[in-house]
Amino acid sequence: MALKARALYNFQSENKEEISIQENEELVIFSENSLDGWLQGQNSRGETGLFPASYVEILRSRSGSSYTDYSGSPASSPGHDSFYTATPSTDISCQGSFEDDDDDDWDDWDDACTVVEEPQSAPGTNGHPSPSLQYLAAYSHHQHAGYHPKPALERQDSMSSSKKGSVVGRNLNRFSCFVRSGVEAFILGDVPLMSKIAEVYCIEMGSKGPQWRPNPHPFICSVEDPTKQTKFKGIKSYISYKLTPSNINSPVYRRYKHFDWLYNRLLHKFTVISVPHLPEKQATGRFEEDFIEKRKRRLILWMDHMTSHPVLSQYEGFQHFLSCRDEKQWKLGKRRAEKDEMVGASFLLTIQIPTEHQDLQDVEDRVDAFKAFSKKMDDSVLQLTNVASELVRKHVGGFRKEFQKLGNAFQAISHSFYMDPPYSLDALNNAISHTGKTYETVGEMFAEQPKNDLFLMLDTLSLYQGLLSNFPDIIHLQKGAFAKVKESQRMSDEGRMDQEEADGIRKRCRVVGFALQAEMTHFHERRVADFKRMMQSYLKQQIIFYQRVSQQLEKTLRMYDNL
């Protein structure tokens, strides 16, 4: 049923799915159930589309319940009741997929409808969703965890209860990822300390800067045997993958749906970590052999990055995903992961940083250098992807056709020589005919070759497109933290803030800074290993390929030796 609403702030649309709204403008809401923080409705100009739920309030008649205010934010003063004081375990982005289905069969998720269906927008970096929508999916509920006061919690800065939050100004753009991720609230000391934090992730100083402490129990996990299975007497079909962790050596079977659920848990929890993107979804052709093989290859790379990450590999939800074989235990572990309070900004409370001093300006310079590097690498990865994709197209189409044409031409010459028997030399005719068939074979070899070399290159490049597309927003979180530190220090120098509070903001900014630098270090380590492996594999396969082509041609050449 359509509802009336009022715009609290101005919002400018950025793509054709969104509409612009003005402060105090009357709106019509088609449904008050938000999708990843977005509502669909109509503005006063008759335009229909999406706009942020946090920018409007729904108006209700006095005889009904009071209006719903979506404008609350994690940076609101403690004790302010708002839409965002929902139970921490409830994820807006997943309510439709999980909460209604908790009692269903844990395997009964349809591949055609994924956990988070993001609104389509103009493509952002490398074709991924634009940052605004991407962070709606990734951080739509980070602000839910632990922001409303609880008796067992206290503010990080231990300020007196009479003080209602930091005097440092808050960002006017309450829709920025810095705000919605909860990092602003963390920096300002508005994320309550938990009475007990069970998980701890340590950062150490390495030879090249801060790095995550390695997983004390490293492992790998294979992804094998994609198998089509059915249920409900064949009405429903899906593909399951056999996963075998090396630390357990007992296989489990997971559908893509389960990977998707895990991926959204990772986005929900790890604010400052670049979570590798899952292979792309596909509405049609999901059971075609080529698509299944491509998804398997990319899931292998995804799993390799997950198990190699010192933090992600230790995540309880990931361990549950890899080890649980009992349906009842799966549901319990799934609910436990969805009720995890140490997510988003609260995840930053689990990080222990080194005692070594780091000048914030030096950190900012290093982050700026990485930002420039990642932008350049992103451009070059996209360029190589386009070139490799075009080369695949030529292998499968152009090269094969050209060699087939050459082979047919040679065979035509051979057939013409048979036309005058007195002067016909069978050995020569047969050799020329065989040459034509050889070039047809070479054409088929070219068509098959991308499976051996270019596909692996494209798989690796696709993974890094996703990783690189994460960093601009993560760096934005760090930039926002730096800005708060500078502002707090200026206010302290002017006597408008206690130095103790300014020191607290600087200390919490150090946590964000160390975490980002640890991610940068891990990214570079993986980049070196992955691109070394990619290039070695490509060159080896190229050598093998051209050796096979050479063998075919040498065999044909010998047919002319004894004419």
Automatic annotation (TrEMBL):
SUPFAM superfamilies assigned to the protein according to its UniProt record, in alphabetical order: PX domain, SH3-domain
Record has Heme as a keyword: no
Binding site for a 1,2-diacyl-sn-glycero-3-phospho-(1D-myo-inositol-4,5-bisphosphate): R255, K257, R295
GO terms (BP aspect): cleavage furrow formation; endocytosis; endosomal transport; intracellular protein transport; mitotic cytokinesis; plasma membrane tubulation
Biased composition (Polar residues): 66-76
Pfam families tied to this protein: BAR_3_WASP_bdg (PF10456), PX (PF00787), SH3_9 (PF14604)
Keyword set, alphabetical order: Cell cycle, Cell division, Cytoplasmic vesicle, Endocytosis, Membrane, Mitosis, Protein transport, SH3 domain, Transport
GO cellular-component term (any): cytoplasmic vesicle membrane
Record Gene3D superfamilies: Arfaptin homology (AH) domain/BAR domain, Phox-like domain, SH3 Domains
PANTHER family: SORTING NEXIN, SORTING NEXIN-33
Similarity-based family: Belongs to the sorting nexin family.
Protein name (record): SNX33 protein
Organism: Chloroceryle aenea (American pygmy kingfisher)
